[in-house]
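A reminder from the course coordinator: this example appears on the midterm review sheet, so study it carefully.

Given structure:
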């Protein structure tokens, strides 16, 4: 719903993060695939490459994105992590890593998305 606000570079970075998150627990379920397809459609991305260097993707977004974009990325990642009804430890770890890199307050994010612990 909010991903259309991202610029092209941010959209492509988000898709790389989303793929990394879907793969984080070693299981990509159909619900996660559906979300990925919906994200691409919402952002009007018909072709894109995934950057497997997630640390550089996170750093790129941390350095250039606005706080609004950072919050959108976090909220959408949490939604994806919960797509299969199981917010795994690996998925939580990746989301927390992004939050920390973005310099956002985890407690503020918790108010929007629930407990990470």
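Designed residues:
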């Amino acid at each position: 719903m909010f991903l259309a606000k991202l610029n092209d570079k941010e959209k492509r970075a988000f898709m790389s993060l989303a793929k990394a998150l879907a793969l984080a627990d070693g299981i990509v379920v159909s619900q996660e695939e559906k979300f990925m397809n919906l994200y691409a459609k919402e952002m009007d991305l018909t072709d894109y490459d995934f950057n497997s260097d997630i640390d550089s993707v996170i750093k790129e977004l941390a350095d250039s994105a606005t706080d609004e974009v950072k919050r959108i990325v976090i909220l959408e990642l949490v939604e994806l992590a919960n797509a299969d009804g199981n917010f795994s430890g690996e998925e939580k770890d990746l989301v927390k890593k992004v939050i920390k890199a973005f310099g956002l307050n985890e407690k503020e994010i918790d108010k929007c998305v629930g407990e990470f612990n």
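The chain has a mean pLDDT of 86. Residues 30 and 84 are 8 Å apart (CA to CA).
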